[in-house]
Amino acid sequence: MNTPRVSLDQWRTLQAVIDHGGYAQAAEKLHRSQSSVSYAVKRLQGQLGLKLLHIEGRNAVLSEAGKVLLQRSRQLVADASAIEQQAHHLEQGWEAEIRLAVEAAYPTQYLMQALKQFEPLSKDTRIRLQEVVLSGAEDILLKGDAELVISPYVPQGFLGEELIQVNFIAVAHPEHALHQLGRDITTHDLNRETHVIVSDSGSKGIDSGWLNESHRWAVASLESARKVISSGLGYGWLPEKEIEQQINNHELKYLPLKEGQRRTGILYLIYANPDQVGPATRQLAELLKQVSHDMEA
Amino acid sequence: MNTPRVSLDQWRTLQAVIDHGGYAQAAEKLHRSQSSVSYAVKRLQGQLGLKLLHIEGRNAVLSEAGKVLLQRSRQLVADASAIEQQAHHLEQGWEAEIRLAVEAAYPTQYLMQALKQFEPLSKDTRIRLQEVVLSGAEDILLKGDAELVISPYVPQGFLGEELIQVNFIAVAHPEHALHQLGRDITTHDLNRETHVIVSDSGSKGIDSGWLNESHRWAVASLESARKVISSGLGYGWLPEKEIEQQINNHELKYLPLKEGQRRTGILYLIYANPDQVGPATRQLAELLKQVSHDMEA
DNA sequence: TTTACATATCTAATAATTAGATATATCTTA
DNA sequence: TAAGATATATCTAATTATTAGATATGTAAA
After folding, report:
1. Which of A270, B155, B246, B261 could connect to A160 by a Cys-Cys bridge, CB 3.0–4.6 Å?
2. How many angstroms separate the CA atoms of A277 and A190, rounded?
3. pTM recorded for the entire structure
4. C-beta atoms of B91 and A5 within 8 A
């Protein structure tokens, strides 16, 4: 790799000369002498082996090459400042990365809203997002694979805060046999059809299928469940917020169940390490709680 | 704007320490003394106000913050080198930008191929691409709005090289009335239908419609012409290479004309300023010629 | 012309960086 | 566990780069 010869300070000086319209003015702004500025620019041009600006009358004019390189150098200097800025944030304990594991049933729009609000405050903290299903969250907490988890269960030894209540609603494709009955649907009706359940991504083997039907399809993610049910291959309980679009598109239709059409679950927000939560994690957690509560109201 | 405090050299030194596994080894590689390296890193950490690495046993280990900042600093140093690299290219006369105006009938795939080949050789030269139609190219040459032009005409006073021959073929949508005749099409047939022509983007007012029909639609670009004809609203002569896909998709179909089904035009490659052609422009021109000739063969 | 304003360059002073020497710490091995 | 090998930390002196001050030079406006 080539080592740079020109220093940031030299580029910075060139920028000041252009921005303030001359060597003398730049010197003023930089709290340096005019000769110092002159020296820096001369040296810069010498190192690059080309003229960046020439004096025309009494003011400095950039050459074509100068324009291009000045432009790039601005980015360079800004980048350098940004690194130092991030160093400052890190020094204050801001994490470089937050790993967030979210139960699939948590409404995507809430999540996106929270992340959107977090972004300008994030101080360069990156988010690593993982979607999990049911006890998958528990595994992640135990293994320490995330700082923040949204899950329907709070494993032993962890502390969770209630985030939102999620409604799971029984749906099937509008053309599905269950929709052709023309009457309320009974448990007996359901038992004749294929029930699509989201099977567990974790190791513990909790299932979200509470009935004990013979025909069951287990799929690995909410997205798969939605696709399978949308294609007419079965029925299942899906989170209300996550299927609004499919309902409107007539890809899915609520099943008129006599009872149990709606099942609710509570999602909890859990810190993996409550003792040592970084400021960024705390901030993100606050936003998630805020968004969840605001949207519910 | 914040001025950076940490110098490129300090970042560079940190990188060397990590890359070569120690202060002493880094010093060796950098041709400096060990104490100098030690000083630089200590100062860096002092300026940032945090520890980037700590000595564990007898080798340096990065802190979490150190990992993140080192990573970013590598990019920074690489950027700095890249600017100097570009300065070198500019110094050798490589242009920062080439403006290329291309007649719409020039096959897109040829153009893309040439640009693709140019990219690794480009030495940071950016391409500004403009699509023009007919005499639009002449305007651009006269105004000096491009360095390189591909056009079917070589205006007075310019020098063009033959690039390729383009075949324009008469087409219409398969369902178009002209395709329902069940026989060869005559001029008389054509005169009853709407002729779609690409009208001139320039000021001179050359038209590519050679017939003198009553029904004419003038559209502003090849893309529009293709869309209009594909939608069944008329017929027209379009460049063979640019409608292959539409022919295969049965969006367009060749018209069985008794005569004049195929019209040809020659596209020329023209330097706006033959006296002072930069190396990048020359390189790109070579690639365009090469691609055009190879593909024709 | 003269004046005002701006850059270039010379020299001396100053500040930052470097090397050399040496102290200190850790791992290895006997 | 002590000696040897290897590595970083720190002190001081030397070196180098940068800066300011003074002055020369060049351009535009009055």
Report:
1. A270
2. 46
3. 0.72
4. no
